[in-house]
Amino acid sequence: MSSGKKISIVVLNWNGSGFLKRFLPSVVAHSPGNVEIIVADNGSEDDSQEVVETLFPTVKYLPLCQNFGFAAGYNHALEAVHSDYLLLLNSDVEVTPNWLDPMLSLMENNSTIGICQPKILNLNRPEEFEYAGAAGGFIDAFGYPFCRGRILQVVEKDLGQYNDTIQTSWASGACMMVRTTVWRKCNGFDADFWAHMEEIDLCWRAQHLGHKVYICPDSVVYHLGGGTLNYNNPLKIYLNFRNNLFLMFKNLPGKQLAIKLPARMILDGLAAAVFLFKGEFNSFVKVLSAHLKFYAAIPRLIRKRRIILQSREISSLNLLTNKSIIWNYFILKRRTYAQTIKRDQ
Fold first, then answer.
1. CA distances from 234 to 33, 38, 275, 281, 294 (A)
2. Is 336 among the domain residues?
């Protein structure tokens, strides 16, 4: 860590004292002494404060007055952080030796990169990529996020097939390094997302402003995943469907929005029908609720979209692939990134 640039690692916590005991030791052990480590606490009611102050005296404990959710929680916590780089880290991530240097070197050597992430592997099955981020995130033709190493629910084994450092569409909120200047220019996360896909929205808005997003596979971390909400939790289903519509409405260029948003809403209707057919009534209701909340939010989303349109270069933006992962997955039976996307890197 010879660049002289200051990094603040910020772990957002909510009633996660067990995670702090388990995962903070690796963060402390593998982060140089000049790196600031902060636990921002989202109004926890457990013994998180005692755990941090007793077991990790070098870690700063930053209490927030209530549970603001992931997006607003980070927004509040990072107001008081003034380092050159912000490292947003989930409380259920185990880091490895020399995890920070590759990301810092990548960003220091390329000033156009505003955000990057490490390779994220599954803590319980370390030979596999982890669902939330894997080896870098992309967005398909109808706004569905996917990763190198994860298409829908299918996760690949890490065989070194994605060890190249490339530009991506988004970085995972489980572990992402952001230039503080970029965070400030974007005004942080959109708090209306509450949780899930707020990092994709941030990355998209950063790219509107000319900043690139990269995957840095020379850095490796292990994510437990599902620590806050299980992947099949009805609340997570609601947030993912609602926030994906928020994401598209805010960020898509006008002509694409007019075509892709209606198509996506039809696909969401098909997904709801599948939930109903399978007897998953709670999930069916959550999809409907997500759409109703989206309709109610349209006036507010229009105002946000206007702000974005004032500053972005639409012609230079190429975040969406022309592939549909739904078509490739269910019709063509292509279940890996390499099968789905044919691209020169």
1. 41, 31, 11, 10, 17
2. no
